[in-house]
């Protein structure tokens, strides 16, 4: 028997009895979910009644707590349990929300101290990290590289707000001890960052062994190759749970929510102080934003970042409302229906 509480499963969510067993999603593949259950690792599909026809359950993602019915082959997931935190992004290709991870305690926004360093990308990670409900922490990797990294560190701290910023090296171990307070047994940590910033090396250093494959970066632009190909939850020997994600250079903003306010307090304090309530912050007289920029109280680059992320968030909310009103099926829903037809056609040929 596997004690799923060691995988972060809250005791209060464990049902006292019943045919469905508690489980946590450790990886998501195409139409198939990998679970850790009281009976060990299992694979599962979604029960069509609960997830397709009744459409009342949230599609599970990596880190989700679920209830699943045991079966000789693939188990059946029948319920997605309440989430304490949830991180999603905009799928730019399909224009829909894409779940990334759930039930994290901390989100490490990973940047490297080389040409890959990007304040714009960091602002994006922080906004989505705050909005997820987890605690964002900025990690600047590759501190062992030659050169003075002081300016990058100062710039990161300037935009991080309440999120702590740590510079470290997975290679030499420099600064690794700074992460200890955020990585206690039973804690779930998600790692976000573009390819080549050193997420896999960082996780290996935390694990004390090589559990993630590592790819190099191109020397001329510090760009990396995707090492992680799917989101997965791993239990380290220390009792810490980590969720690694495929390298995502651009994270489309789905719904920034409160995360935008928390990530941009320097901007938010001037909003609502304009002479006109419908101020566009362009050429209107009495604009508090324009005045703050002119007086040096607000960095114009921060204002541009805020406008970009807020605009993406607003467009995503409108798109989501339209899709819900039209009842447009999601990609995952359509895939599940195709799988069901294929299954029934194979096992019940008279029906299809």
Automatic annotation (TrEMBL):
Keyword tags: Cytoplasm, GTP-binding, Hydrolase, Metal-binding, Nucleotide-binding, Ribosome biogenesis, RNA-binding, rRNA-binding, Zinc
InterPro entries registered for this protein in UniProt: G_CP_dom, P-loop_NTPase, Ribosome_biogen_GTPase_RsgA, RsgA_GTPase_dom
GO biological process, one term: ribosomal small subunit biogenesis
CP-type G domain sequence ranges: 94-251
Spans traversing the lipid bilayer: none
Cofactors that this protein relies on: Zn(2+)
Domain EngC GTPase, residue spans: 102-249
Enzyme class: hydrolase
Residues annotated to bind Zn(2+): 274, 279, 281, 287
Record-level Gene Ontology MF annotations: GTP binding; GTPase activity; metal ion binding; rRNA binding
Main location: cytoplasm
Subcellular location: Cytoplasm
Compositional bias (Basic residues): 334-345
Entry's EC annotation: 3.6.1.-
Positions contributing to GTP binding: 141-144, 193-201
Cofactor note: Binds 1 zinc ion per subunit.
Cited Pfam families: RsgA_GTPase
Recorded GO CC terms: cytoplasm
Function: One of several proteins that assist in the late maturation steps of the functional core of the 30S ribosomal subunit. Helps release RbfA from mature subunits. May play a role in the assembly of ribosomal proteins into the subunit. Circularly permuted GTPase that catalyzes slow GTP hydrolysis, GTPase activity is stimulated by the 30S ribosomal subunit.
NCBIfam families named among the record's database cross-references: ribosome small subunit-dependent GTPase A
Subunit structure: Monomer. Associates with 30S ribosomal subunit, binds 16S rRNA.
Similarity comment: Belongs to the TRAFAC class YlqF/YawG GTPase family. RsgA subfamily.
Protein name: Small ribosomal subunit biogenesis GTPase RsgA
Gene name per UniProt: rsgA
